[in-house]
Amino acid sequence: MGLNFISSILFATVVAGTPLIIVALGELVTEKAGVLNLGAEGTMSVGAVAAFAVAHHTGNPFLGILAGMGAGILMSLLFGISALTLMANQVASGLALSIFGVGLSAFIGKPYESVALASVEPIRIPLLHKIPLFGPALFEQQGLVYFSWVLIVAVAWFLYRTKAGLVLRAVGESPVSAHSIGYGVVRIRYQAVLFGGAMAGIGGAFMSVFYTPMWVEGMVAGRGWIALSLVVFATWRPARVMIGAYLFGGCMIAQMFVQGSGVRINIPAQFLSAMPYAATVLVLVLISRNRGTIRLNSPASLGQTFLPDA
Amino acid sequence: MWLKFEQRPEPSKTMSYLSPLLAVALMFLSGLILFLVLGKSPVEGFKVFFLNPIKDSYGIAELFLKATPLMLCAVGLSVGFKANVWNIGAEGQLLIGALVGGGLALHFEGSTSPFLLPGMIVAGALGGMAWAAIPAFLRTRFNANEILTSLMLVYIAELVVSWLVHGPWKDPDGFNFPQTKLLSATATLPILLAGTRVNAALLLGIGALLVGWIFMNKSFLGYQMKVAGQAEHAGRYAGFSAKRSVWIGMLAGGAMAGIAGISEVSGPIGQITEHISPGYGFAAMIVAFVGRLTPIGIFFSSLLMALLYMGGEQAQQYLNLPSSISKVFQGMLLFFLLGSDVFINFRLRLVRRRK
Asked: What's the domain range around A67?
């Protein structure tokens, strides 16, 4: 194994982890407000196809990101209307969003399945990208990779260093108390849900416009669900999301690792493809095993419907 | 003046039955709008999508054929959903059921034993149960969220199927197609009505609905599950085990999904391929909700869902639309149902806005 090989493994890990970071941070904020939105998979899918379509028609990948974000916001608005305004069960509403989104993306995306998109040049940080081993992974990436790092800091700062973040967490811990001292629980939850949707949309856009870059039905392939699991893995803490995302990113490129290592191992490709899913199950088990950790860290009202007048 | 939701003193029974009908009506309405937006005539679109598939007796037979796996999966899932056990991995349990049952048939290739077919169905049920037992065990033993684990196992199951049909189980004379040998006549479910594809699995489906009804309404265990779902604390106080609810809920879903899987393989498909299910395990969740988690409701909603699948095929053929339009309709239906359900617990009131 040469240096170049390790360097490209690091690079690919960061790329594979990026959509997970963005989507998981959006979901983390949503969950911190006490809302469990299981619709990330559907939102990502619609974000991916919207971004792809716009990037294809305009030739501008940046407009693609905006389209993905807009589509994500619209999708999460559907969830909000169902789970917040109409007070439907959050689990069922999220499932509905995932089923609807995956179907809708397949429907809209059909004409784009045979279309290719030019790959976007990465943003090279002068000099730094030439550092051996880490250079390409850290300093020769797409803009959204840098965005994902900024997002971690921004989300952590917002949640723990601003008043708005404190209020959002209060809504997630005890919506009744937050309501009784005059905070609009439903309004704050809407904002958190829409932020989560925007991030899921951007995560989808990264997949279709920058990562692959193409659109195929089912290309999100469970990343929305893995991002949800990441939030549990991170015990609702932004910085830990990054660690988890790169762990899973590493799992996702396991195939490349095995092929490139030069060692002839006879493992069916499907086993390697199953690794991220198996790892997700394993990680959920390891984290959830300790009931205290989960109870201590998860927002107390997570998943519970808030009735404004009850 | 504006509208405001006001909590009803107690949930409305009438609305809980009307809500699914309202949801279906809203789905039809948005279907008309969707066809209009897509530049198709709404009347023509509606006809092709909802009426064409069942315009003759063959179509109606196909409707029942496609409704069978849905009603099987949905009745199993409804047992868990009633107790708030969220098994969303029925699709994976269906696939593993298909593999285990189909594998039995492949193993005893050439057998003419009358026990082969019943054995395959039992094996299918056991396969589905085994796959569902994983999230049940992880939930009861390690507290791991069954929503996420059961869903992850769907992806793994798909990859297991893919590995087997591309590798060890591939038909050597199959021109390298990723599929197994065709099952023999002994290993194939008998056709109920000559000239159609409707097979004995429909009887299994209806049988499952009956068993489900007896379990939920006439057995103490079923009652315990309902209480555990509606009032967790009351259930715990009465000494009903939450772990048992998880196990029963998951295994019921897994068994039924497994039977659905083997019924497809030993029915209309006749071999194991990568395309055993067009998402029946996911659609069955919608079937269960729209059917109000009751067997009678599930019977009708599985027919509706089957119609949506068939409508998608028709739309592809005659309207030049992707067949995934079915899934758009399925998703809309669930959203409309969840939205309409607000009227079970609330009513709308006109209130004057106070300044």
From this structure: 3-117+128-297
Contact B328 A93 (CB under 8 A): no
Q: Which residues of A touch B178 (CB under 8 A)?
A: none
pLDDT of residue B354: 60
Over residues A31-38, the mean pLDDT reads 97
Q: Indicate whether A123 belongs to any domain.
A: no
Does A215 fall in a domain?
Answer: yes
User: What interface predicted TM-score (ipTM) does this complex get?
Assistant: 0.93
Give dist(CA B68, CA B262) in Å, integer: 12
**What Å distances lie between residue A21 and A28, A73, A201, B144, B259, CA to CA?**
10, 18, 13, 22, 39
Helix (H) or strand (E) holding A140: strand A140-141
CB contact, 8 Å: A216 with chain B?
no
pLDDT in tens, A49-87: 999 999 999 999 999 999 999 999 999 999 999 999 999
A91 contacts B86? CB cut-off 8 A: yes
Q: Report the CATH number at residue A264.
A: 1.10.3470
Answer yes or no: is A245 within a domain: yes
Tell me the C-alpha distance between A138 and A131, whole Å: 9
Could you give the domains of chain B? Answer: 44-341 (1.10.3470)
A310 found inside a domain: no
